[in-house]
Design a protein that fits this description.
Order of helices and strands: HEHEEEHHEHEHE
Largest sheet: 7 strands, mixed
Distance between the termini: 43 Å
Number of helices: 6
Strand order of the largest sheet: 4-3-1-2-5-6-7
Length: 189
């Protein structure tokens, strides 16, 4: 039996050091990331960061967004020509993800935005990410409407609501019998 995308991601992250994972925004950019020799990549809603995942702490880190390092335009920009401010829909993000996953063999980590608000929508987001074949997904602690992760003035939900989103994601993972990796992307300071 083939290794699941989540198990492949965990195998990569269990190896020593910090792992570089560029962002992708469509099937072609994902193929370029894979061809360049990277072990995994992220989907990005906005200007694509270069992401690092530290295997020892499972912490996701990004370059200084002012440098605009990364793969270029992202899903929101590529599909809509607009910034990542909550205008791209859940369905558009999942559709783009399915197209990306179909053309590469490396694990892909989804941009789950803020889970599309409440616990019910977080569970739906996780279930659809699992069906799409994502290895992992990160969820933000921002309010709706959200802002790009690299902009000033982002507003976040109270801590208990952010924790509730992650618990809902874990519940959806358990209910589906999946091993998808869930990552909390924190904008609070």
């Amino acid at each position: 039996m083939a290794e699941s995308p989540a198990k492949a991601l965990c195998r990569i992250l269990d190896s020593p050091w910090v792992h570089l994972g560029p962002a992708c925004f469509d099937a072609l950019s994902a193929k370029l990331v894979e061809r360049a020799g990277f072990d995994y990549c992220f989907t990005s809603g906005s200007i694509s960061p270069v992401g690092y995942v530290c295997c020892e702490t499972m912490t996701v880190l990004y370059h200084d967004p002012k440098t605009r390092n990364g793969s270029g335009f992202s899903i929101s920009a590529a599909r809509l020509g607009l910034p990542d401010v909550g205008l791209i829909s859940f369905g558009e993000m999942m559709d783009q993800g399915r197209q990306i996953i179909q053309v590469v063999s490396i694990p892909i980590i989804a941009n789950g935005d803020n889970g599309y608000e409440n616990a019910i929508n977080v569970k739906r987001t996780i279930r659809d990410a699992i069906r799409a074949g994502y290895a992992g997904i990160f969820l933000e602690d921002q309010v709706s409407p959200k802002a790009c992760g690299h902009t000033c003035g982002r507003k976040v939900v109270p801590r208990d609501e952010a924790v509730m989103r992650i618990k809902a994601a874990i519940d959806a993972r358990k209910e589906s019998g999946s091993d998808i990796v869930i990552i909390a992307r924190i904008d609070s300071r």
